Amino acid sequence: HVIPYRDSKLTRLLQDSLGGNAKTVMIANIGPAGYNYVESMSTLRYASRAKGIQNKPKINEDPKDALLRKYLDEIEQLKHQLSLRNGSFSGKEGGGGGGGGGVSDDSARIQKEAELRKLLTQKNMIEEERQRIKAALDSSVLSAKST
To answer: Would the pTM of this model clear 0.70, i.e. be above it?
Structure first.
């Protein structure tokens, strides 16, 4: 159910609050006098429509920080999977059960380690880029303050 914005100055001023990532409280002020009836009804209708607006908020996050967080989560997941596999290797070797499974487990482990190294390299590159951007931003803020 889409509620179109009313074409008014108030709605334009509140547009980011009504349709953005903010929690908004609206107080509708009406007067009891008879000559305020039309304005009071207009205010109540507006407040009723505004009450029906539902936002789907999202976290305001730098895309690079989101990517970094995603990589860190994936690294942790891969480390967990690797530790589970390493734990299962010791159990299989102790039982003396066949040599065929060890080769595929080793190749899978090597592949996961290569993926982990690749992710760590990407993480380091992203962190270096973030540091460069932060340094550039800090220097521009300092130069702006000195002017």
So the answer is: no
3-class SS of residue 122: helix
Q: At 36, is the secondary structure helix, strand, or coil?
A: helix
Q: How far is residue 97 from each of residues 36, 41, 46, 87, 102, measured CA to CA in Å?
A: 89, 82, 74, 15, 10
The torsion defined by the Cα of 60, 131, 64 and 144, in degrees rounded to 10, comes to 50
The residue written with tokens 């990407």 in the block is 122
Residue-wise pLDDT tens digits, 71-99: 899 998 988 888 888 775 444 444 444 44
Helices (H), the chain: 9-19, 37-51, 63-95, 100-146
Half-sphere exposure of 39 (CA within 13 A, CB side): 9
